[in-house]
């Protein structure tokens, strides 16, 4: 499978209370999703480790049963914009919903973030699946899954169109002549679609990256269809190397079928690394975290992940011989077999499946963790990882101080940043502006902006 | 200590990346871009060094190339002020946000999040957004003026309700017991109204100010009634002292009639100072500024504000007496009084719009400008000003280095901050949380 680089891309999923559901209870861990200084430390540590990006999730409801970091949290645009002037290289990816916002507002906020950060903005596109969110936006029921993705597709097209509405060089700002903009390089969108009607142009000049990077994390059929059309970075959930490789191959081939160049797509599974001086020490940390979780809540999560009602078992019993379930994924069988062979308990399985919200968990020495990452990367199961430290700041600091140098020594990760934009970190090209492209091709006529003939150039003389 | 500390002005800075004057960016050395974050951070830091109360950002949701060039392309207010927050420690940060095109849950989060990030310095300038061009960017019909205020009233009730959803002490964060928060102190809003249906609670806990500060700028009748009920600060458009005093008195009467302390609704007119070492020098500066303006843009700015195209009328003649369209409300009515018409030419009006977008212009030596400000402040026409420098950074420095020392010598403005939040600077108490029991 083609790949333009032999280096991994690494991002960090910044959850103020840690990515483990009970990470905030770990000794010395930051405890709040609203502590700006804690996020600042995460960003600074990630930049010290030369990571590609800082990622924040989002939701649009306060659901008490959820991960504590999601119950109360800073809003992504404000958080990332505040971090932007405090950092210089690291990408800033924010999650934003297509279901509860309008394309014009969202396009603006990301363009603004991209300007503020000097080209480090990225949009993780979500359609927001929680019914609690719907209730906060005047809807009694959740919009159906497939409809949400159809809306998201049109939404993303409109946003991309708005990001192109100012060509590069449209602002002249010549104090001598008083010419501020070249109106011929600013274009309305005039989008009239099934769900949205957007005149444009955006009230924001072309952003440093041309387009902020588009990220997608849903792995449903409609999610993958969306990703194959729009996403440049996929944040996937993978537990097992063969499935991860198949997923990556599948998504790249679907993107090619859409006429896209698969070299410009990065697939990064989530990974919770738990480090120790020895394997046993690392496992001990995971156990400490696991024991913070209420047993019934843990069983609830386990049942959910395994697709089988586990409530009659105890977490500290050996893994039972489970009957096959319709809902069980292949990788679950693999892990159950492995756990039974190693004499592991259900709590061990919980630590693997539920601790990181379904993402892979790897515990061990720095070498062991680097080995696992290298194996996945070399097998082309991924282009790198989104790291989900169980708790902050130590969970990330340990990775940066102990695993990153190993990856660097093996030539698998950069030792210095080579650019200042998120696209440059990810090795992605800057998309050409659609109007500039027409102009450059010389064949097609550049679509004139409405009213451009009557107001060719804005003068202040 | 005296029985009551001497009353002092509240002063904010109106930040427009390329200057408040429509062509201020042409001034030598002036910042020229509305989307360079460095400009905004610089403005925030300079205003903070001068101990000013706040930095204010206007907004619109359209790109109109005929309007002030600072509005054609500009960074979005909440992202901008979050970046400024990271580089300042005291100055208040006020962002405009529209009730017409942002869902209340989203807006409540932006403001609350900014308040957390800035440790209690956030304000929201509520705008209803009054242009058809904005509506077209959202695929919706434009709403009639008075109905926009009806919607805005329900909107702000929702937003303030969401901000109250987390009582003080709701976050427990006890690592020992594993108790992260106290569900009994987190409340659903359960709002079902004519225009909005919002269950809540907000996924941001109680913010440092409890309730971020509400700004409002509408000066129409509906706007004034709204302000009297909800606004902590009114950004006023006033160029005539008598009218300003009447407006201020009438608004504060309405505030008191609604059961609020009139002192807790501050009236701050927009104010563009042109500072010179001598009166002649200041006048020459103003002439230079006016000379930057292209006639078509000048007329366009005026047309937008008053709803009539006056470009066919002689500039040195009287102001045409045409009825104002219903879309144009307090802003233009405040300007076009019979007194103003009797004493001003169309050129005066044009310059007022082009130079300051209609705000009060004060041109002279630091003492003369301080005299005007003191006369308005002491005369009951305002509680302070939103200073709108013609260009940045020079015109802001002219004010902070020239006029502020005079105001301080007269005891009219603080020497240094005495508090840390925007409420502290404005002398506004933290409102009680609606759910809080005995405390």
Query: Radius of gyration of chain B, Cα only, in angstroms?
Result: 22 Å
**What proportion of the residues of chain A form beta strands (DSSP E)?**
5-15%
CATH architecture of chain B: Alpha-Beta Barrel
Unreliable segments of 5+ consecutive residues of chain A = 448-461
Number of domains of chain A: 1
The chain-level mean pLDDT of chain A equals: 89
**Strand percent estimate of chain B:** 5-15%
Distance between the termini of chain B: 30 Å
| Number of separate structural domains of chain B | 1
Instruction: Find the count of extended strands of chain B (DSSP E, 2+ residues).
Output: 13
Classify the secondary structure makeup of chain A into a structural class: alpha/beta
Shape, per Cα inertia axes of chain A: globular
According to CATH, the fold-level topology of chain B is TIM Barrel
CATH superfamily of chain B: Luciferase-like domain
What's the number of helices of chain B? 16
Order the strands across the largest sheet of chain B as they lie in space. Answer: 1-2-3-4-9-10-11-13
Q: Major sheet of chain B: size, sense and barrel closure?
A: 8 strands, parallel, barrel
Comma- or semicolon-separated keywords:
heterodimer, A: 461 residues, alpha/beta, TIM Barrel, eight-stranded parallel β-barrel, two-stranded antiparallel sheet, 16 helices, disordered C terminus, B: 439 residues, two-stranded antiparallel ribbon, 13 strands, globular
Topology, please?
The complex is a heterodimer of chains A (461) and B (439).
Chain A: E1 9-13, H1 36-48, E2 53-56, H2 68-71, H3 76-83, E3 91-97, H4 103-116, E4 121-126, H5 131-136, H6 145-163, E5 171-174, E6 179-181, E7 191-192, E8 197-198, E9 213-216, H7 221-230, E10 233-236, H8 241-257, E11 266-275, H9 279-292, H10 295-306, H11 330-341, H12 346-353, E12 360-364, H13 366-378, E13 384-387, H14 394-409, H15 422-426, H16 434-441
Parallel strand pairs in A: 1-2, 1-13, 2-3, 3-4, 4-9, 9-10, 10-11, 11-12, 11-13
Antiparallel strand pairs in A: 5-6, 7-8
Chain B: E1 10-14, H1 37-49, E2 54-57, H2 69-72, H3 77-86, E3 92-98, H4 104-117, E4 122-127, H5 132-136, H6 145-163, E5 171-174, E6 179-181, E7 191-192, E8 197-198, E9 213-216, H7 221-230, E10 233-236, H8 241-257, E11 266-275, H9 279-291, H10 295-306, H11 330-335, H12 338-343, H13 346-356, E12 360-364, H14 366-378, E13 384-387, H15 394-409, H16 422-426
Parallel strand pairs in B: 1-2, 1-13, 2-3, 3-4, 4-9, 9-10, 10-11, 11-12, 11-13
Antiparallel strand pairs in B: 5-6, 7-8
Helix pairs in contact in B: 1-3, 3-4, 4-6, 6-7, 7-8, 10-13, 14-15
């Amino acid at each position: 499978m083609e790949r333009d680089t032999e280096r991994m891309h690494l991002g960090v999923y910044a959850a103020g209370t840690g990515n483990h559901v009970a990470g905030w209870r770990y000794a010395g861990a930051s405890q709040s999703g609203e502590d700006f200084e804690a996020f600042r430390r995460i960003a600074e540590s990630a930049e010290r480790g030369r990571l590609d990006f800082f990622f924040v999730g989002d939701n649009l409801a306060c659901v008490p049963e959820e991960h504590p970091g999601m119950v109360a949290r800073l809003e992504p645009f404000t958080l990332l914009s505040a971090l932007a002037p405090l950092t210089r290289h690291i990408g800033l990816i924010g999650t934003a919903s297509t279901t509860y916002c309008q394309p014009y507002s969202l396009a603006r906020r990301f363009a603004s973030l991209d300007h503020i950060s000097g080209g480090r903005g990225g949009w993780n596109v979500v359609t927001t699946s929680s019914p609690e969110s719907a209730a906060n936006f005047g809807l009694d029921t959740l919009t159906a899954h497939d409809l949400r993705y159809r809306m998201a597709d049109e939404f993303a097209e409109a946003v991309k169109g708005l990001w192109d509405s100012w060509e590069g060089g449209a602002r002249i700002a010549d104090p001598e002549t008083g010419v501020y903009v070249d109106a011929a390089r600013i274009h309305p969108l005039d989008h009239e679609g099934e769900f949205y009607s957007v005149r444009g142009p955006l009230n924001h000049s072309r952003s440093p990256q041309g387009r902020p990077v588009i990220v997608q994390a849903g792995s449903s059929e409609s999610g993958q269809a969306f990703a194959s059309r729009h996403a440049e970075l996929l944040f996937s959930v993978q537990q097992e190397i063969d499935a991860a490789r198949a997923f990556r191959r599948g998504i790249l081939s679907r993107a090619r079928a859409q006429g896209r160049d698969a070299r410009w797509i990065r697939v990064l599974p989530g990974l919770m690394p738990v480090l120790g001086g020895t394997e046993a020490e690392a496992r001990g940390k995971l156990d400490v975290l696991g024991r913070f979780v209420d047993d019934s809540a843990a069983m609830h999560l386990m049942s959910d992940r395994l697709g089988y009602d586990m409530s009659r078992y105890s977490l500290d019993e050996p893994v039972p011989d489970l009957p096959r379930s319709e809902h069980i994924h292949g990788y679950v069988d693999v892990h159950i077999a492995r756990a039974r062979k190693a004499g592991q308990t259900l709590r061990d399985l919980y630590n693997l499946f539920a601790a990181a919200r379904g993402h892979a968990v790897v515990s061990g020495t720095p070498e062991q963790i680097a080995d696992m990452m290298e194996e996945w990367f070399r097998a082309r199961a991924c282009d790198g990882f989104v790291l989900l430290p169980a708790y902050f700041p130590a969970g990330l600091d340990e990775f940066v101080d102990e695993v990153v140098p190993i990856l660097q020594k093996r030539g698998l990760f950069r030792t210095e940043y080579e650019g200042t934009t998120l696209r440059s970190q990810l090795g992605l090209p800057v998309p050409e502006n659609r109007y500039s492209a027409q102009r450059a091709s010389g064949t097609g006529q550049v679509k004139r902006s409405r009213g451009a003939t009557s107001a060719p150039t804005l003068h202040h003389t | 200590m005296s029985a009551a500390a001497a009353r002092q002005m509240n002063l904010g800075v109106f930040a427009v990346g390329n200057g408040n004057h429509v062509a201020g960016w042409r001034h030598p050395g002036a910042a020229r871009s509305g989307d360079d974050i460095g400009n905004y951070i610089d403005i925030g830091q300079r205003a903070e060094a001068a101990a000013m109360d706040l930095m204010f950002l206007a907004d619109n949701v359209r790109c109109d190339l005929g309007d002030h060039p600072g509005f054609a392309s500009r960074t979005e207010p909440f992202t901008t002020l979050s970046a400024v927050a990271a580089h300042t420690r005291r100055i208040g940060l006020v962002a405009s946000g529209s009730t017409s095109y942002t869902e209340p849950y989203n807006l409540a989060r932006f403001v609350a999040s900014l308040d957390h990030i800035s440790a209690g310095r956030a304000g929201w300038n509520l705008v209803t957004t009054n242009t058809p061009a904005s509506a077209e960017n959202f695929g919706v019909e434009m709403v009639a003026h008075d109905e926009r205020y009806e919607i805005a009233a329900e909107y702000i009730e929702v937003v303030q309700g969401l901000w109250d959803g987390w009582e003080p002490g709701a976050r427990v964060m006890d690592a020992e017991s594993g108790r992260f928060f106290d569900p009994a102190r987190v409340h659903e809003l359960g709002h079902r109204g004519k225009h909005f249906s919002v269950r809540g609670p907000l996924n941001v806990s109680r913010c440092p100010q409890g309730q971020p500060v509400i700004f409002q700028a509408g000066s129409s009748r509906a706007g004034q009634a709204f302000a009297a009920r909800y606004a902590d600060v009114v950004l006023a458009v006033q160029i005539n002292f008598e009218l300003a005093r009447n407006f201020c008195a009438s608004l504060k009467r309405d505030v008191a009639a609604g059961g609020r302390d009139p002192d807790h609704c501050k009236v701050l007119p927009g104010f563009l100072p042109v500072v010179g070492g001598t009166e002649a020098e200041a006048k020459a500066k103003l002439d230079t500024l006016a000379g930057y303006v292209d006639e078509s843009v000048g007329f366009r700015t005026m047309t937008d504000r008053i709803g009539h195209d006056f470009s066919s009328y002689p500039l040195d003649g009287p102001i045409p007496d045409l009825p104002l369209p219903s879309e144009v409300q307090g802003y233009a009515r405040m300007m076009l009084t019979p007194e103003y018409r009797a004493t001003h030419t169309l050129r005066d009006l044009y310059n007022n719009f082009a130079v300051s977008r209609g705000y009060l212009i004060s041109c002279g030596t630091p003492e003369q400008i301080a005299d005007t400000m003191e006369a308005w402040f002491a005369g009951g026409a305002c509680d302070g000003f939103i200073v709108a420098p013609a260009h940045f950074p020079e015109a802001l420095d002219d004010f902070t280095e020239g006029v502020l020392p005079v105001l301080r010598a007269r005891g009219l403005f603080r020497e240094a901050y005495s508090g840390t939040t925007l409420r502290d600077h404005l002398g506004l108490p933290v409102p009680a949380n609606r759910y809080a029991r005995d405390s």
